[in-house]
Amino acid sequence: MGRLDAKVAIITGAASGIGCAIAKAFTGEGATVVIADINETAGAQAAREFSSGAGRAVFHRVDVTSEQDFRDVVEKTVKDFERLDIMVNNAGGGPWSSFERTTLEDWDKTFALTVRSAFLGMRLAIPHMRKAGGGSIISIASNAGIRGMPPLHGYSAAKAGVINLTASVARMVGKDFIRVNCISPGLIATPASRSAVPDADAAYARAQPIPKAGAPEDIAAMALFLASNDSKWVSGATMVVDGGQNTAEAVPMNLDE
Fold it and tell me: pLDDT tens for residues 90-116?
């Protein structure tokens, strides 16, 4: 028996990186996973790969900043699988630039990808979870949202919004046995971060007491805990998964200096 047998989950941004690792972990524990991503090629490939184990996966192309796209994937999921137990708001991102070079367009795009998408995922999932008698909503925040991380100014502000939205919504829906939590990763070596940071694995390994870069699977393990009944008494929490980074000095990446 898997920990997520008979559960149905939507995971945004699950074609690669952290979201992909979460999809793999969930299907490995028996869940049906909807991979919601704008990357059709990688998303379809992940769905095929993860359908060969205990669970199954399907892909739907979704622009998470579009309310209609998001509504469509939620409604199709409930129509096809008759339930929605888990919503993982993983999609997010933003440009690296000095504060004074950050454009309004970049700022708005970051908030749309990160905060708007989490808001839509929560708002659209809650009615279905309420009807089912409960569920788990998990959003991926960041240590940048806890203490800021130049040059990720917009990203830091947006992730702080995700953390506070998590806490306020958790208070609202606890009576419905819907748990709302977020995960605050530290420095995770993903394809995207490796392309942005020279020698990312080594740089990240020096940035916290546990001397290794975080892996997407480290975040997936926490997401699995929050999705399962193992965390049935956990809600409104920000689960920090960072190798102790929050106890260390900030990584020197300030482009404003």
Answer: 999 877 778 889 999 999 999 999 999
